[in-house]
Amino acid sequence: NAASRVFTFEDAGTRPGACLTLSIPEVLDPRYGMYVWPCAVVLAQYLWSRKEQLPGLGVLELGAGVSLPGVVAARCGAKVILSDRAEAPSCLDNCRRSCRANGVQDAVVLGLTWGDVSPDVLLLPKLDLILGSDVFYDPEDFEDVFFTVAFLLRKNPEAQFWTTYQERSADWSVAALLRRWNLRCVAVGLDSFGADKPDLAGSNLPGRHRVLMAVITLGGDEG
Ligand SMILES: C[S@@+](CC[C@H](N)C(=O)[O-])C[C@H]1O[C@@H](n2cnc3c(N)ncnc32)[C@H](O)[C@@H]1O
């Protein structure tokens, strides 16, 4: 059931011709569901649009799955840590497989379950960016995701959380959680980085799904 999906990020701006092609192995078994979600290609495109700022940055991807955004960040020169549920070794294997398939040798793969502060989390190095693609898909997890994001931002007050999410229900809102954790959220228009299209990076993603992007930082006096 394993197959690979190819993504080619092109440079429409200053350096026409420069491009990055990645091959992401997917496991199309419904029990694992480890494939590239529509949100991932949008976040990857955002990283690609900011590639000049990535070299040397400390980047942690949460709920990375097959890790398209993290692999883009690594290939653009960031120091990347990929994480997924600590209790799901098969998810962590997916992170490693994506690295191997794309020549990423120095990324660290870590079990990090949202809401848990394990010794590994306490020992994380300095972070500049936290990534989360489609980590807001089950309202039962929202509190745990925010706990982890707020914890990491307080340890790294200059860091930003870049997240893409799919609008699955108009009833879901994270406004109360943002207030509770004293976080500031700024929406980023997909048109501002060329992601307002159904077919990004030569793929058929995000398709017709409505994906949104936000940058979350510490709010109030904490930032
Ligand atoms: C919808 S998938 C998104 C995967 C990937 N980020 C993407 O966009 O292609 C959600 C991911 O979150 C991970 N996940 C689910 N619950 C988690 C938890 N409690 N802690 C950490 N990761 C979790 C899953 O294993 C899965 O990789």
Bound molecules: S-adenosylmethionine
The tally of helices reads: 6
CATH class reads Alpha Beta
Low-confidence stretches: none
Could you spell the SSE succession in H and E letters? Answer: EEHEHEHEHEHEHEE
Mean pLDDT: 92
Largest sheet: 7 strands, mixed
Helical residue percent?
25-40%
Distance, first to last CA: 45 Å
Radius of gyration: 16 Å
| Structure class | alpha/beta
- By CATH's scheme, which homologous superfamily applies? Vaccinia Virus protein VP39
Report the β-strand fraction as a percent range.
Answer: 25-35%
Provide the domain count.
Answer: 1
* Gross geometry: globular
Q: What is the annotated CATH architecture?
A: 3-Layer(aba) Sandwich
The CATH topology assignment is: Rossmann fold
Strand elements, count? 9
Spatial order of the strands forming the largest sheet: 5-4-3-6-7-9-8
Keywords: Methyltransferase, S-adenosyl-L-methionine, Transferase
Organism: Tetraodon nigroviridis (Spotted green pufferfish)
InterPro entries: Methyltransf_16, SAM-dependent_MTases_sf
Protein name: Methyltransferase 23, arginine
